[in-house]
Write a structure and sequence with these properties.
Structural class: alpha/beta
Number of strands: 14
Oligomer: single chain
CATH class of the largest domain: Alpha Beta
CATH topology of the largest domain: Dihydrodipicolinate Reductase, domain 2
Largest sheet: 8 strands, mixed
CATH superfamily of the largest domain: Dihydrodipicolinate Reductase, domain 2
Strand order of the largest sheet: 13-12-11-7-10-9-8-14
Radius of gyration: 20 Å
Bound molecules: nicotinamide-adenine-dinucleotide
Number of helices: 13
Strand content: 15-25%
Shape: globular
Number of domains: 2
């Protein structure tokens, strides 16, 4: 655990998923104080302030930025992220920002360039990483127990219906910026990249088969990783029940995640060894593994170590860019029926926007 004697004041913008962020900060003892909440819906902000004893509620960004806070936590719909991140940095605050970080690789690179001027930090949210089963997998990889990866599969099979899409910004290219590949599967795909490393090539099909929306709600994709390993992604918002699952076939063990839809990194994970000797090495590597808080509390605890003790950020802008680079490649592959090579830089036709031609600011 980190040095509890330093407490950081947080101002949250957006009271939807922002509620779970508040609960995450509050689960960490005195490490954080949620000092202000801002939502365009002032009644919502006031309600959260009353429920969680937050001293200041406002519907105005300027009032939130003028408050005595160290960190601005952006929990608004994706189209507003870049503007709010830059406003918070200009006001001298550290920034936490929900996924997806921004709406294009060009915007991601602009945020990266702005953040590089410092001294404030920007931490994108990828809370699925901070769960014990997945952390055990990372340890087995780091310690050389798993061996090289052969193949991986990632399934994001969730159920979303009309009630979910009744929220006006969802399901539209202009305001949600993408569909299931961007908004829902991004966490599991981030976990794949965290364990398997950078991607070399992508092919994908995407379709809208479940709900009457603009954006895709089903997808199938094939990836070749730079290591030579192969991965398959399956995404649907039309499953009968919510389930997320990752499976990794390494040379020396096969790892399979839990199926908790919004926390597949949590226990129990299965680590099946190729031989009894490898089983002994797995047991030895995990013998002193100490579970830590998961999801938002887990990510905020690690951020506290960064702010208080100078530890490395638990999720970086480069991680968020990598996730958006995969999104860009998936959309381009699906639209053109071509295999897409990574990395993707300014010369790529979808660098400025992954959205289809004619949708919002699409290319
Ligand atoms: N990490 C996760 O697991 C996770 C889960 C859900 C949503 N999200 C992300 O969180 C973000 C918000 O999603 P949500 O589901 O909470 O949306 P939501 O629509 O439920 O809530 C967003 C809130 O932000 C407010 N808002 C919008 N623009 C604002 C602005 N400029 N200033 C102040 N308040 C503003 C709205 O009034 C609303 O109350 C999205 O980027 C989404 O992708 C992440």
């Amino acid at each position: 655990m980190s040095n509890v004697s330093r407490s950081f004041k947080v101002g949250i913008i957006g009271g939807g998923i922002g509620r779970q962020h508040i609960e995450g900060y509050r689960a960490l003892g005195g490490r954080y104080e949620v000092a202000a909440i801002c939502d365009l819906n002032l009644d919502l902000a006031r309600g959260l302030a009353a429920e969680f004893a937050i001293p200041r509620a406002t519907d105005k960004l300027a009032e939130l930025l003028a408050a005595d806070i160290d960190v601005v936590d952006v929990c608004t719909p994706p189209g507003s992220h870049r503007r709010l991140i830059e406003a918070a940095l200009d006001a001298g605050r550290h920034v936490v920002c929900e996924k997806p970080l921004v709406g294009s690789l060009a915007d991601a690179d602009a945020v990266i360039a702005r953040a590089a001027r410092g001294p404030q930090l920007v931490m994108p949210i990828f809370q699925y990483r901070f769960a014990s089963g997945y952390q055990k997998l990372l340890r087995l990889i780091e310690r050389g127990v798993a061996g090289p990866l052969h193949v991986a599969t990632v399934e994001t099979h969730w159920r979303r219906g009309a009630d979910y899409y009744a929220v006006p910004w969802r399901g539209k290219w202009e305001s949600e910026l993408g569909g299931a590949l961007l908004g829902h599967a991004i966490h599991a795909h981030d976990m794949l990249c965290g364990a398997a490393g950078p991607i070399a090539e992508v092919f994908a099909f995407a379709a809208t088969r479940v709900n009457p929306i603009e954006t895709e709600d089903c997808a199938a994709a094939s990836l070749r990783l730079r290591s030579g390993a192969l991965a398959s992604l399956s995404v649907s918002l039309g499953a009968a029940e919510d389930m997320s699952r990752l499976r990794f076939c390494f040379r020396d063990l096969t790892a399979e995640s839990a199926q908790a839809p919004y926390n597949p990194g949590t226990e129990p994970w299965r680590f099946v060894p190729m031989t009894p000797e490898i089983g002994t090495r797995i047991d030895a590597a995990l013998a002193d593994f100490t579970p830590e808080p998961e999801r938002f509390a887990g990510q905020f605890l690690r951020l506290h170590r960064t702010l208080a003790d100078g530890a490395a950020l638990p999720v970086t802008l480069a991680d968020a860019r990598a996730s958006l680079e995969l999104v860009t490649a998936l959309y381009h592959a699906a639209a053109t029926s071509q295999v897409v090579s990574l990395p993707i830089g300014p010369g790529h036709p979808r660098y400025a926007s992954w959205r289809p031609v004619g949708a919002g600011k699409g290319v």
